[in-house]
Amino acid sequence: MATFYALTVPEFVAELGLSGRDMFDLEWRLSEGEGALIAARTGLSAETAQAMTFRDMVPAARVIIARKNRHHCPLCPEEVHRISAALPWKFRCPVHGVALCDATGATLSDMLGAGRFTELEICASAGVAVLDAWARGVGQGALGPDEMLAFLTARHRRASPPNVSEQPRMSLGDRRDYHEFLTTPILRQALAIIVPEYDKVAPVLTKPVRPGLYGLGQGSLLQSFALTIGISRIAEDPVTRAIKVLLSSDADGQERLRDVLKAWPLSLRRRISARLWRAQRDEKERQISEKATRQRQSHKYRRVQSHQYRYRIS
Asked: Per residue in 151-167, pLDDT tens?
């Protein structure tokens, strides 16, 4: 509105008689008196002014709302700020329907590949529906996005340097020059297990996301997209997703994840515990069976020495 009247935001706020008020506070909520002041000075109705705020959002959602456009549409003017563009789970412009770009001008299609992005966008739509309902305080179940995000951003393994698949191809000289990068410990979060597509394309040093709602509110375009997909997959089958992460975790990681799962409904925790015990038992039996098979094979005559039992010669 300030741009329409050829004023800066502070000048426009002063003209409305709201000098000293924080702009983001006004965008978040308007009192009846503030709405009346804006209506009297601009000619808009008080209801129209209220509709330009985030009054329908629950208080917990405030931390994920950006003060300006979070990501930009290449076809929209830079000075236009839409309500949807401040939300982290909007990945297309509501007016033009094109994919949003990050600060570098890259789209999710550029990062993930056109085919993969199309498939994941369909999956993310379920996560968008869950987040929309939560932000407006409707359709709340026992397991909400805040509990899911806490699980997605929890560390399931101890921090470790980039593995071979995460390292770019380098000559021996480059490896010496970038030794510090190759030995930098990276946080290992459950998000990489639930959304492996993100784990494959995310830059190594920026792969970890901030914990909880802050990961969604202050993350990059790719991180927000991955977290939205993670929410959709957990909402679809929370027990299976939780067990998959627990089986991939080390001892310390399992302890951290169990602390996070205490916020989940008791019925889900019981199902996770029962199925996890069976999965661990089956995995142990499989390993015992494989070991017995290798030992039987080691007694068969072979022309070459076994690579798995180097100290024996058949």
From this structure: 999 999 999 888 877 77
Collapsing DSSP to helix, strand or coil, 1 comes out as coil
Q: 């089958």: which residue's tokens? A: 237
> What's the Cα-to-Cα distance from 203 to each of 107, 111, 258, rounded to whole Å?
15, 10, 28
Q: How far apart are CA 147 and CA 263, in angstroms?
A: 7
- The H-assigned helical ranges of 237-265 are 238-247, 251-261
Question: How far is Cα 235 from Cα 86, in angstroms, rounded to an integer?
Answer: 24
Q: What are the counts of helices (DSSP H) followed by strands (DSSP E) for the chain? A: 16, 2
Pairing mode, if any, of strands 186-189 and 155-160?
antiparallel
Q: How many angstroms separate the CA atoms of 98 and 110, rounded?
A: 13
- Global pTM reads 0.83
Place of tokens 């597509």: 197
Structure tokens belonging to residue 49: 């002014």
Please report, as a single letter, which amino acid is at residue 197: E
- Taking only Cα atoms into account, the Rg of the chain, rounded to an integer number of angstroms, comes to 26
List strand residue ranges (DSSP E) for 31-82, in order: none
DSSP state of 300: S
Question: pLDDT tens, 64-122?
Answer: 988 878 888 888 887 777 888 888 999 998 888 899 998 888 999 999 998 999 999 99
Helix then strand then coil, % of the chain, to nearest 5: 55, 5, 40
